[in-house]
Amino acid sequence: MTILEIKNVTKQFGGLTALSDVSFQIDEGEIRGLIGPNGAGKSTMFKNIAGFYTPTNGNILYQGKNIEGQKPHTIAELGIVRTFQETTLFQEMTVFENALVGTHIKGRTDVFSAIFGLDKNKQKAAGEKVMEVLEFMGLSDRKDQFASELPLGSQRALALSIALVSEPKIMLMDEPFAGMNPEETNHMMDLTRKVRESGITIVLVEHDMKAVMGLCHYLTVLNFGEVLAQGTPEEIRGNDKVIEAYLGGVK
Amino acid sequence: MNNKSILTRQNIFFGAIFFAIIIAMPHFLKFHHQDLLIFLTVNVLVVCSYRLVTLTGEWSLIHAVMMGVGTYTATLLFNHYDLAMWFTIPMAGLVSGLVAVLLCFPLLRMTQFYFLIGSFAAGEAIRLIWIYHVGLFGGTSGLRGVEPPILFGIDFLDPIPYYYLTLAVVTLCLILLYRIENSRVGLTLHSIHWKAPLAESVGVNAWKYRALAFILGSFFVGIAGALKVHYIGSVTPNQFGIGYMVFILIWVIVGGYNKFYGPIIGVIALTVFDESIRSFEVLRPAIYGGVLIASILFLPLGLESVPGKLKAWFGIGRTRQEPPLTDQ
Ligand SMILES: Nc1ncnc2c1ncn2[C@@H]1O[C@H](COP(=O)(O)OP(=O)(O)O)[C@@H](O)[C@H]1O
Ligand SMILES: [Mg+2]
């Protein structure tokens, strides 16, 4: 069943067309790879879906409803959460606090309850959810460390945790494997699979071909803001256009 | 969420001593200094409420004027409706908060530098209203005739009872401010400061929380405004000009805005310092300015960071910032 549909989306920045009439669909429960050379428009696509940009043209349908142009926090409430290309954390907060911010949708409270502690049960539940996810991500031992003190692999895992505790339906992951060593990559691949098994649809932007080929059920290839090809990892691997545009030197 | 952790035996001990000192204090001071003590107590609320506004990372230049909104509200309610201070104080907070609600819509479309300048312009506009609406606000010479209450035979015109009254109200407000900062709401405000897009990506409506901080900060500073006018008895638009605003900024920055108690240390230290160099007369502003520059150069994190630095100097324990906010 289609959960997310991108319909003829165009995004222009002044004279520059970052996305040009892009259409594709994502099924519920899949891990979709969105690949393409640098500057192809992958991050721009994510930002359009997550509400950080408004498409110049076209529609984005989530569970059949138009969501393009909505604010990021509204999209998050609908169940679509993005992670960021550069490691983006609340560096000055502890691991626990970082993940706790992720529980905002369920854990938020009004000033009155905050002052008089009327939200105790809610906060307790949020704390438990956080610990559950940190456990899942192998971060529970580090919960009182500052985010800035973590090694890169754990920082990535924390970024994923912040998104996960918000209990999204779709996670948009922007290059989660960048800069990881093989061991960290393997660990992250396991985590990504586990996330998907918990019922979350994943869209993955990634350059690490081992991760992409190993994880994704289906790939959409972008090049110069257009959809160049779509298919299973095997089909894409053998697609001449893709090899020329993207894998060229690698193969 | 972490109120347990602040109620350690040590904290209670030092807290008790601190309270004993501030309660005994006015009895050892001259009349002039008793006045100063009251203004200082009011200013503590001013800087702490300002810090709440800055938690989201937005610095405004309208805080002094929002205090003025509270002051004028209390003055008008007292003069026209003869309302007692018990009503004028909360009303001053509410009206300041309400004005902040209205200002949110134009002002919070801006962030950072633009917000700073926009808030200054909005503040000047409000001051112009006070100046030109002579009938209601008394123009440049302002309004007078506000009096403190008389209750149970105690005349609060006396500095000592008025000081205790101020202390009680300010302490209550500080407790509320502390509770807010250490709650989920405070966590969200902090998160917007450190990385607004990340907070938004998990559902935080950053605009709404910036507005909330601004409105709450204005509410509390409105109360400070009312407290002040019931003591000095009169109000003019110039009390809330950019000069006073700059002092608020200096107190907060010199004290250190990363911790709840930083601005409190700042306003106390600088008030005491300013008073202690009174005898230098014409040189006073120069000395004051010099100390400011030195403190910003050598203590960019504020006076609040001194104990940590000393500890690091002598190698006692770790210097890591203590975790702010929640823990479980
Ligand atoms: N905010 C922006 N303003 C102007 N140009 C942008 C902006 N964001 C992205 N671009 C441009 O859009 C194109 C696609 O960028 P991006 O989506 O980041 O590529 P990718 O993530 O595939 O490497 C690039 O040419 C980039 O320079
Ligand atoms: Mg990118």
Provide tags for this entry.
heterodimer, A: about 250 residues, alpha/beta, six-stranded mixed sheet, four-stranded antiparallel sheet, 11 helices, B: about 325 residues, mainly alpha, two-stranded antiparallel sheet, two-stranded antiparallel ribbon, 14 helices, 4 strands, globular, disordered C terminus, binds adenosine-5'-diphosphate, binds magnesium ion
Tell me about this structure.
The complex is a heterodimer of chains A (251) and B (328). Chain A is of the alpha/beta class and 251 residues long. Chain A has a domain at 91-167. Chain A is built from 11 helices and 10 strands. In chain A, the strands form 2 sheets. In chain A, strands 6-7-8-3-9-10 form a 6-stranded mixed beta sheet, sandwiched between helices. In chain A, a hairpin with a 2-residue loop joins strand 9 and strand 10. The longest helix of chain A is centred in the middle third of the chain and has 17 residues, at 120-136. The two termini of chain A are 34 Å apart. Chain B has 328 residues and is mostly helical. Chain B has 2 domains: 31-240, no CATH class; 241-304, no CATH class. Chain B has helices spanning 3-6, 9-24, 31-54, 63-81, 85-107, 112-132, 134-137, 159-181, 184-201, 206-232, 242-255, 262-276, 284-298, 306-314, and strands at residues 143-144, 150-151, 154-155, 234-235. In chain B, the strands form 2 sheets. In chain B, strands 1-4 form a two-stranded antiparallel sheet. Chain B is globular, with a radius of gyration of 20 Å. The termini of chain B are close together. Residues 318-328 of chain B have low confidence and may be disordered. The A-B interface holds A 50, 52, 71-73, 76-77, 81-84, 88-94, 96-97, 100-102, 104-105, 107-111, 114-115, 117, 119, 123-124, 126-127, 131, 144, 146, 162-163, 165-166 and B 1, 176, 179-180, 183-188, 190-191, 194-195, 197-206, 212, 216, 320-321, 323-328. Residues 13, 16, 18, 36, 38-44 of chain A line the site of adenosine-5'-diphosphate (ADP).
